[in-house]
Write a structure and sequence with these properties.
This protein is an alpha+beta fold. It is built from 6 helices and 12 strands. The chain is elongated. Pfam families: Csd3_N2 (PF19425), LysM_OapA (PF04225).
Length: about 325
C-alpha cells in the first residue's frame, strides 16, 4: 500500500485560515438576507370634498347664464300688416302707434314687401322693447323704447363696396327679351330704357343683330350682396350709330361728348309714371296709411331768390 504523506505545519496553518474565512462569509450572507428594506412614504391623494369645490375651477366661459331677452323673427308674407304681425307676436298695438309716429320723418315702414325680415325683442318681463327692420345685408333700422316710454328711430349701416360686371347681347325680337337673355333684371332694363328713350324708339328703331352692352355694379357688404344694383354705362350699336350713356360721380348720366342724356325736366313728379286721376294736392294722403305720398322735383334746380316778385330759379 502506498504511504500517505503527513501535513506539514505550514499546510495546517493555511487550512485553518481558509476554514475561518468560509465561516465568516457564511455568517455575513445570513445577516444581509435578513435585513429589511424601509418603505417609502406615500402621500395620500387629495380629492374634492364636494361638488361645489370642483365647479369652482371651471372656466367662466362654460358657466350657464340665463338670457334676459327674447327675440321673435318674422318674415313678411303676402297679406301681412304691421298690426297683424304685432298681434301674432304679442306686442301691444299702442307700441305700434308710437313706432309709426317715430317713423313719420323716414317712412322706412312704408314699403314693406313680402320677404322683408323683422325682429321683435322683448325684455325679461316680456315687455316689447324694440323692432328691427332688416332692409338688406348692410342696413338695419331699429325702433327702440326710450326711458319716457316712447320709441326712437335709429339706422345702422355697414361699410359697402361696388363690384361691376359687363353684360352683352344682341337684339333677337324685342329689346326686353334680348336683355333678359343677357342677364339684366326688369329694373335694370327699365333704367336702360329711361337713359336712351330720348335718343331712340326701342320698338321701331331696333333691328335684329343690333349689339348692346351694359355695365352693372352690385353693392356688396363684405362678400354678400345687398341686392342693390346700378347701371354704370350703356352702349347700344344700331347700324352705324352708337348710343351711349355713362354714369358720372355726381350720379347723372352723360354721353361720349359730355352731354346729359336725360332732359332737364321730368314729365312726372314720381319715380314711376302713374295715371293722374285728380289735381295735385300737396296734402293728399295715402288712402290706407294716411300719410302724405312723397313727390320728386321735376328738374335739378336751386331757388336763388324768393320775394314779392317772381322767384328766380337756377337750373
Amino acid at each position: 500500500m502506498a504511504e500517505h504523506q503527513a501535513f506539514t505545519p505550514t499546510h495546517k496553518t493555511l487550512l485553518g485560515i481558509t476554514v475561518v474565512l468560509v465561516l465568516v462569509a457564511s455568517f455575513w450572507s445570513t445577516q444581509s438576507s435578513s435585513a429589511k428594506i424601509p418603505a417609502l412614504p406615500i402621500e395620500p391623494l387629495v380629492t374634492p370634498t364636494s361638488a361645489a369645490a370642483s365647479t369652482e375651477t371651471l372656466p367662466d366661459a362654460i358657466a350657464e347664464s340665463r338670457p334676459d331677452t327674447r327675440t321673435q323673427h318674422h318674415e313678411v308674407q303676402s297679406g301681412d300688416t304691421l298690426s297683424s304681425i304685432f298681434s301674432s307676436a304679442g306686442a301691444p298695438g299702442s307700441d305700434l302707434n308710437k313706432i309709426l309716429e317715430a317713423d313719420v320723418e323716414y317712412l322706412a315702414l312704408e314699403t314693406l314687401q313680402p320677404g322683408t325680415q323683422l325682429r321683435l325683442t322683448f325684455d325679461d318681463q316680456d315687455r316689447f322693447t324694440e323692432l328691427a327692420l332688416v332692409l338688406d345685408s348692410a342696413r338695419t333700422v331699429f325702433y327702440t323704447r326710450t326711458d319716457d316710454d316712447q320709441f326712437e328711430y335709429r339706422r345702422m349701416e355697414a361699410d359697402t363696396h361696388w363690384v361691376s360686371e359687363v353684360l352683352r347681347g344682341s337684339i333677337e325680337g324685342s329689346f326686353y327679351v334680348s336683355a333678359v337673355k343677357a342677364g339684366l333684371t326688369a329694373h335694370q332694363i327699365a333704367s336702360v330704357n329711361q337713359l336712351l328713350e330720348h335718343r331712340l324708339n326701342f320698338r321701331r328703331d331696333l333691328r335684329a343683330g343690333d349689339q348692346f352692352a351694359v355695365i352693372i355694379s352690385h353693392e356688396m357688404a363684405d362678400d354678400q350682396s345687398t341686392g342693390k344694383t346700378r347701371v354704370e354705362a350703356v352702349s347700344l350699336k344700331r347700324g352705324s350709330r352708337t348710343h351711349t350713356a355713362f354714369r358720372f360721380e355726381d350720379g347723372n348720366y352723360y354721353d361720349q361728348n359730355g352731354k346729359s342724356v336725360l332732359p332737364a325736366f321730368r314729365r312726372w313728379p314720381t319715380q314711376t309714371p302713374y295715371r293722374v286721376s285728380s289735381h295735385f294736392n300737396p296734402n293728399r294722403k295715402h288712402p290706407v296709411t294716411k300719410r302724405i305720398a312723397p313727390v320728386v322735383c321735376q328738374g335739378s334746380w336751386n331757388l336763388i331768390h324768393f320775394g314779392s316778385n317772381k322767384p328766380r330759379i337756377a337750373l
